[in-house]
Design brief:
mainly alpha, two-stranded antiparallel sheet, 13 helices, 2 strands, about 80% helix
Length: about 290
């Protein structure tokens, strides 16, 4: 049931990303330096529908995390890349080539191997505050460095950088969802007496804003791919380091599961690079008038 809920969340995330991109295509460039550019999104019907789909996706993801381990739920969200390909083709007329199809197949095979042989066991719902502080500080430093030095260059690069930072924040918020749900089960009064729900809200909102900037570049594949790679990587690391989740034994199961996860991440990168190559060809192609002349 947890895996099914995670796959439903992945589909909703892909639908949300496609609709939000469609809503942002006709707007001026989105930027953190111009809050007004982000406020314009609210007036776009498609963007609002996509945001509703995103919120419903969060509900399914939370339900999956409530029933399963972080280290198995987060990798399944890589399927967002696979779902985004046909949705992008139908809703925003983005072509799907052979390389993207091969990448999607690799993702499906890799995730199947990880789900069958990974079977994370053990784990805790929370970690000591000091360990959380160190993890959050490290992730915040990585995000700042990426935003300072990686936001220049082509639109695809910008989409990838902002998508990566958004994915890191979503991975952190997913990890914080585990203790937040545990507190919620104990009661609403108990929930608001801890810092984790507030940190979850901050990470989630920041990730949401940065994802909108990434999608606003018009480059759906690199945006979705980087989010879908960074999110599970951070989720797995936090699940293993902080929540003490471990993959099942025997050892060869762990090896096969790691190979499967690696294949899934490589498939997502292949899709991103394929789209980058197509964008470069489009920019290099001469205009029709020049060909006629």
């Amino acid at each position: 049931m947890a895996s099914i809920l995670a796959l439903l969340a992945a589909f909703l995330f892909a639908l949300a990303a496609t609709l939000q991109q469609k809503g942002a295509l006709n707007l001026p460039e989105l930027s953190l330096r111009s809050p007004a550019s982000l406020a314009r999104l609210v007036g776009q019907t498609m963007w609002l529908i996509g945001t509703i789909a995103l919120l419903v996706g969060y509900v399914f993801q939370a339900a999956a995390l409530d029933r399963g381990r972080l280290a198995i739920i987060q990798p399944l969200l890589v399927m967002t890349v696979v779902f985004a390909l046909p949705l992008g083709y139908v809703l925003t007329s983005q072509p799907v080539g052979r390389i993207e199809i091969v990448g999607a197949a690799v993702i499906v095979v890799g995730l199947a191997l990880f789900a069958l042989f990974g079977d994370p066991a053990g784990g805790n719902e929370n970690a000591p505050g000091g360990e959380w502080a160190v993890a959050i500080a490290v992730l915040a430093a990585v995000c700042v460095v990426l935003l300072l030095f990686g936001g220049r260059g082509s639109l695809s690069l910008k989409a990838g950088v902002y998508g990566t930072v958004a994915g890191i924040l979503f991975g952190l918020s997913a990890a914080l969802t585990k203790p937040t749900l545990d507190f919620l089960h104990a009661g609403v009064d108990e929930l608001f007496t801890h810092w984790e729900p507030y940190a979850l809200a901050v990470a989630g909102i920041l990730g949401f804003v940065l994802q909108q900037i990434s999608l606003g570049t018009g480059k759906l594949a690199p945006s979705v791919a980087t989010v879908s790679v960074a999110n599970p990587v951070v989720g797995i690391l936090l699940g293993v380091v902080l929540l003490d989740e471990r993959l099942s034994r025997p050892a060869w199961h762990v090896v096969v599961a790691c190979i499967g996860l690696g294949l899934a991440l490589v498939g997502a990168v292949v899709i991103s690079l394929a789209r980058e190559g197509e964008d470069a060809e489009d920019r290099a192609a001469p205009a029709p008038s020049a060909v006629t002349a």
